[in-house]
C-alpha cells in the first residue's frame, strides 16, 4: 500500500514532534516534511506535492487560513486539514468557505486523526465531533418550514445536510437515512447543486451564508 504523504505545518516544535511520533505508528501515513512558518509552506507543497497538509490555524507569521487561501489560489492539489486548539465557529466557517477538507481539534486522539487523514485522502470531509455537534445544534434551532423556504431543500435533504455538517461518512449516511449508498451519493449531489456548492465543505459554508445554520 502506498503511504499517504503528509506535510505538517505548526509553529510549535513540541506539537510537531508529538504529531510525528503519533502518526509514525501508522505505516500508511508518512510525514514527508514539516514547516513552522507560512512562508515555506507553498514552496514545500510545490516541491513535495504531499497528499495532505495538516495546517495549524495560527502561525507565527500568518494565519493558517490565509495559507489555505494561498494554496487554493495556487491550485495546490493537496487536501487540507486544519488542526487547531481553537473551536471558534468563525474559523470553521472561513475554512469551509475556502473548501478546506477537514477541521480537527488538537485534542483529537491519534486514531481519530489517522482515520480523518485516510478519509480526507479518499475524498471525504471530516470535522471534530464537538464541532459537528455545534453545527447540528444551530441547525435544529431553525424551523423546518423556514429552512425549506430559504434553501429549497426537502426534509430528507435537510437531514442529509445535517449529516454532512456533522462529518458523517457515506456509510454512516446510509444507516441514518435508510438509503442505499448510490441514493445517498445522488442526493448529496442534489443538495450541493441546490446550494451551488462543488463539495461538502462548500455546502456547509453556503448553508452558513444563507442562515441555514
Give the tags.
213 residues; alpha/beta; Rossmann fold; Arc Repressor Mutant, subunit A; 2 domains; 6-stranded parallel β-sheet; 6 strands; 55% helix; 14% strand
Task: List the SSEs and their pairings.
Layout lengths: L3 E6 L3 H11 L5 E7 L2 H11 L3 E4 L8 H10 L5 E6 L4 H9 L4 E4 L4 H12 L4 E2 L1 H12 L3 H8 L3 H11 L4 H8 L3 H15 L4 H10 L4
The main β sheet shows up as: 6 strands, parallel
Number of helices: 11
Low-confidence stretches: none
- Pairing-aware structural class of the strands and helices? alpha/beta
Which CATH-level-2 architecture of the largest domain? Answer: 3-Layer(aba) Sandwich
Number of strands: 6
Helix fraction? Answer: 40-55%
The number of domains: 2
Label the overall shape. Answer: globular
If you consult CATH, what is the topology of the largest domain? Rossmann fold
**CATH homolog superfamily of the largest domain:** Response regulator
N→C terminal distance:
40 Å
Taken in chain order, the helices and strands follow as EHEHEHEHEHEHHHHHH
CATH class of the largest domain: Alpha Beta
Percent range for β-strand residues: 5-15%
Give the C-alpha Rg: 17 Å
- For the largest beta sheet, what order do the strands appear in spatially? 2-1-3-4-5-6
Rounded mean pLDDT is: 84
Could you explain how this protein is built, in words?
It is a single chain. With 213 residues, this protein is an alpha/beta fold. It has two domains: 4-127, 3-Layer(aba) Sandwich (Rossmann fold), CATH 3.40.50.2300; 133-209, Winged helix-like DNA-binding domain superfamily/Winged helix DNA-binding domain (Arc Repressor Mutant, subunit A, Orthogonal Bundle). The chain has helices at 13-23, 38-48, 64-73, 89-97, 110-121, 129-140, 144-151, 155-165, 170-177, 181-195, 200-209, and strands spanning 4-9, 29-35, 52-55, 79-84, 102-105, 126-127. It has a six-stranded parallel beta sheet, sandwiched between helices. Helix 8 (155-165) crosses helix 10 (181-195). The radius of gyration is 17 Å and the shape is globular. The N and C termini lie far apart (40 Å).
Amino acid at each position: 500500500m502506498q503511504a499517504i504523504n503528509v506535510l505538517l505545518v505548526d509553529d510549535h516544535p513540541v506539537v510537531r514532534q508529538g504529531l510525528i511520533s503519533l502518526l509514525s505508528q501508522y505505516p500508511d501515513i508518512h510525514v514527508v516534511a514539516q514547516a513552522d512558518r507560512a512562508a515555506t509552506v507553498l514552496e514545500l507543497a510545490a516541491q513535495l506535492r504531499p497528499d495532505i497538509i495538516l495546517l495549524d490555524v495560527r502561525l507565527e507569521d500568518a494565519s493558517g487560513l490565509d495559507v489555505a487561501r494561498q494554496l487554493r489560489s495556487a491550485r495546490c492539489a493537496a487536501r487540507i486539514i486544519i488542526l487547531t486548539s481553537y473551536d471558534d465557529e468563525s474559523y470553521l466557517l472561513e475554512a469551509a468557505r475556502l473548501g478546506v477538507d477537514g477541521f480537527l481539534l488538537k485534542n483529537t486522539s491519534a486514531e481519530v486523526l489517522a482515520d480523518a487523514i485516510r478519509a480526507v485522502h479518499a475524498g471525504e470531509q471530516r470535522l471534530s465531533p464537538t464541532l459537528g455537534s455545534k453545527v447540528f445544534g444551530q441547525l435544529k434551532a431553525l424551523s423546518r418550514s423556514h429552512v425549506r423556504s430559504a434553501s429549497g431543500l426537502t426534509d430528507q435533504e435537510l437531514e442529509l445536510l445535517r449529516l454532512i455538517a456533522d462529518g458523517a461518512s457515506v456509510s454512516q449516511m446510509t444507516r441514518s437515512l435508510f438509503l442505499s449508498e448510490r441514493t445517498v451519493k445522488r442526493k448529496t449531489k442534489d443538495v450541493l447543486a441546490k446550494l451551488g456548492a462543488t463539495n461538502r465543505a462548500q455546502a456547509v459554508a453556503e448553508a452558513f451564508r444563507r442562515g441555514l445554520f
